[in-house]
Write a structure and sequence with these properties.
Layout: H1 3-21, H2 26-33, H3 37-44, H4 52-61, H5 66-70, E1 91-92, E2 99-104, E3 112-119, E4 129-130, E5 134-141, E6 144-148, E7 151-155, E8 160-164, E9 169-173, E10 178-185, E11 202-203, H6 212-215
Antiparallel strand pairs: 1-2, 2-3, 3-10, 4-11, 5-8, 5-10, 6-7, 6-9
């Protein structure tokens, strides 16, 4: 089983388990996300690919964040979290071009998430994202062009950008693959909900998908 297939299977299991805990049917999840029931069923079975934005929308509907679907199961809270090199699984979704490894998924009383993000040499699409809070992105390898609103900035290895994440933004590798440490601050806290807060990382200007072929992008 390759990395993409393994990722799809693990994500599907995580969605099904979280849905069961919350006593939600697939129909309930479809109503909350705007995605079709048949598509969500295939996602749960690990038979359909979907975008990072859709995964975040699913996680939010289940009362959590992206890391709840791609990260390791929660452990007893000791007041700190260890990240051992090589222990955290890598995830990839074909079509997005991104591969990522969760470093820390926050937790009770913690409002910060960290992710190691690998950007492909050829960007998949110029999709802008926005969400409440802030981001700090530190370029570990390669060069990365960040677009924030109407401005762009080219960062080299060792450079960092601190941005307001409510402004539509995106990042793409330039001149070859790149790796970024992305730290995200959520004002309401990971997994917490606010009545007037939109989904994390909503793709800017993209409406909720209504057809399976749109959902798989």
């Amino acid at each position: 089983m390759n990395l993409v297939d393994q990722s799809l299977r693990q994500i599907g299991i995580a969605i099904r388990e979280r849905r069961a805990v919350r006593r939600m049917t697939l129909g309930d999840l479809a109503a909350h996300t705007g995605m079709s029931l048949s598509f969500l069923s295939r996602v749960e079975r690990g038979q359909a690919q979907t975008s990072v934005g859709n995964l975040i929308r699913i996680a939010e509907a289940l009362g959590g964040t992206l890391h709840d679907l791609i990260g390791p199961p929660p452990a007893e809270d000791t007041g700190f979290t260890l990240f051992r090199a090589g222990e955290a699984p890598a995830y990839a979704i074909s079509g997005s071009g991104y591969r990522w490894v969760p470093v820390s998924g926050g937790g009770d009383g913690r409002n910060i998430e960290a992710t190691l993000l690998d950007l492909p040499a050829t960007p998949a699409a110029d999709t802008r994202f926005s969400h409440p809070g802030e981001e700090i992105c530190f370029v570990l390898e390669g060069r990365v062009r960040f677009a924030v609103g109407e401005s762009t900035a080219l960062l080299a290895t060792g450079d960092a950008i601190h941005l307001r994440s409510d402004i539509p933004h995106t990042a793409a590798a330039e001149g070859g693959p790149a790796r970024v440490l992305m730290i995200t601050h959520h004002p309401a806290g990971p997994g917490e909900r606010s009545g007037d807060r939109p989904d994390w990382w909503n793709p800017s200007g993209i409406t909720s998908p209504t057809k399976d072929r749109e959902e798989e992008r």
